[in-house]
Design goal:
Layout (H helix, E strand, L loop, with lengths): L15 H6 L1 H12 L2 E6 L2 E6 L2 H10 L4 E2 L3 H10 L8 H11 L12 H16 L3 E3 H18 L5 H20 L14 H23 L7 H10 L8 H30 L8 H11 L6 E5 L3 E3 L2 E3 L4 E4 L1 H4 L41 H18 E5 L7 E3 L3 E3 L4 E6 L4
Parallel strand pairs: 2-8
Antiparallel strand pairs: 1-2, 3-5, 4-12, 5-8, 6-7, 9-12, 10-11
Bound molecules: protoporphyrin IX containing FE (HEM).
The site of protoporphyrin IX containing FE has 24 residues, from helix 11 and helix 14.
Organism: Celeribacter ethanolicus
Pfam family, one: p450
Keywords: Heme, Iron, Metal-binding, Monooxygenase, Oxidoreductase
Length: about 425
């Protein structure tokens, strides 16, 4: 069987240091130099980067049972989320998915407009009093506040959760990139900042769960829906630890992804696209900057993709970031243009995959789109935003596709025009 082409890398670590130095640049060079299926080596791990819709469909959907999530990254994420939807444990995943999916049906979020407004409006009032904002920070603060309301109907200080989540995500990415991770030997070897952040999140979330269990008149939110599903038939199916894992997973998976995507949307749409349909602005932002820029699977049994051998035990990497800029599917792929989405909604066959595919497709897809379109509409109804000149706008890929540092934007009231 043929071996896919790929960069040689160093004897010991393969391409690990190039990947760490510039992940997106390295992967883009790999497909440019070797084609749409590239064999890579990161230390002891062999991985195939696949960059065509039909290959992606094969791995994530048609042959999904041959590709699981028992990967290094899932192991490291589990230190924060336990055994829930992002976990490698198939049994735990399936139980959680059955439970969580119904709590994320579009009908559950029909009336969240006023919930979002109650948080967006004070932000816009504050903007009215200022000339400049850091859009990245603003969106982080806003989306965590929205997430806390939608998940828990709670008034806890969003800043407290935000800071802890940032520490958890940064530490997890550091451990994913590191060749060796001492905390996989014993959880006691985690860094103190990580342990402290987990402790803070635990305290908040366990508190919320226990209070809610005792509550007679439960508000209409995700936590209540999860509890109702557990308690159906009078039998509680998930204990507090499992519920904690489910809610922390949702916070982790939903917060930074949506916040970063929104800031990318404002950064680019403010260049003359403010009047485009908010849903199209957001769709184009997550084409150019898909929050989950890389998806990993482990190969269970030997396979063949594109005529190349994919050995069992190796990894497969899919990068929505690369696929969304594939010249065969996207004319002028690096240009921001929401009108690409005016007609039919592109799908995987058109090279579009921001929310994944198959059994692990994003549960928060509808919610993320709804929040984002609503926020974009409210902001542009009152303000024009302009990027302050002289800033270097770059990507900083971690667990999500972040910005390199703050991004300052100038605020202009529409009323004053
Ligand atoms: C712009 C925003 C978002 C993007 C781009 C995004 C993207 C994705 C992608 C690509 C996956 C699939 C990962 C894989 O196959 O390994 C995924 C999974 C997931 N997403 Fe999202 N997501 C977003 C927002 C949200 C929100 C708001 C929530 C919930 C509050 C959420 C919860 C999840 C969960 C729990 C999973 C794991 C599903 C599973 O493995 O069964 N996401 N997301």
């Amino acid at each position: 069987m043929m071996r896919a082409p790929g960069p040689k890398g160093s004897m010991l670590w393969g391409s690990l240091s190039e990947f760490k130095a510039d992940s997106l640049g390295f992967l883009a060079d790999a497909v440019r130099d070797h084609g749409d299926i590239v064999r890579l080596r990161f230390g002891p791990i062999t991985a195939h980067l696949i960059n065509r819709p039909e290959y992606v469909d094969h791995v994530l959907s048609r042959q999904a049972s041959n590709y699981d999530k028992a990967t290094r990254s899932a192991d490291r994420i589990a230190a924060t989320t336990g055994n829930s939807l992002l976990s490698a444990d198939q049994r735990a995943w399936s139980r959680h998915r059955q439970l969580i999916q119904p709590a994320f049906q579009p009908s559950c979020f029909q009336n969240i407009g006023p919930v979002i407004d109650a948080l967006v409006d004070p932000m816009l009032e504050r903007w009215q009093q200022t000339k400049e904002i850091d859009i990245v920070d603003e969106m982080m603060q806003l989306v965590i506040a929205i997430a806390i309301k939608i998940l828990f109907s709670s008034d806890i200080d969003p800043q407290k959760i935000n800071t802890a989540l940032e520490t958890l995500l940064a530490d997890t990415w550091r451990r994913i990139e590191a060749p060796l991770d001492a905390s996989m030997i014993s959880p006691r070897l985690h860094r103190p900042a990580f342990k402290k952040a987990v402790g803070e999140i635990d305290q908040i979330v366990f508190d919320l769960i226990q209070t809610r269990r005792r509550c007679q008149d439960r508000p209409d939110d995700v936590l209540s829906r999860l509890l109702a599903a557990h308690e159906a038939g009078g039998e509680i199916q998930l204990n507090d630890k499992e519920l904690r894992d489910a809610t922390v997973t949702l916070l982790l998976a939903g917060h930074e992804t949506t916040a970063n995507a929104l800031s990318w949307a404002f950064i680019h749409a403010s260049n003359g696209f403010e009047t485009a349909e908010p849903a199209h602005i957001f769709a184009e932002a997550i084409r150019l900057y898909p929050s989950i820029w890389i998806i990993e699977r482990r190969v269970i049994r030997d396979d063949i993709i594109g005529g190349y051998h994919i050995p069992r035990g190796s990894s497969v990497l899919i990068s929505p970031y690369l696929l969304h800029r594939h010249t065969e599917f996207w004319p002028e792929p690096n240009r921001f243009d929401p009108s690409r989405f005016v007609d039919d909604q592109p799908r995987l066959r058109d090279g579009y995959l921001p929310f994944g595919l198959g059994p692990h497709r994003c549960v928060g897809l509808y919610l993320a789109n709804k929040i984002a379109a609503h926020v974009i509409e409210r902001v542009y109804a009152r303000f024009k935003l302009k990027l302050l000149p002289g800033q270097l706008i770059g990507t900083s890929p971690g667990i999500t596709l972040r910005h390199k540092g703050p991004v300052q934007m100038k605020i202009e009231c529409r009323d004053n025009k």
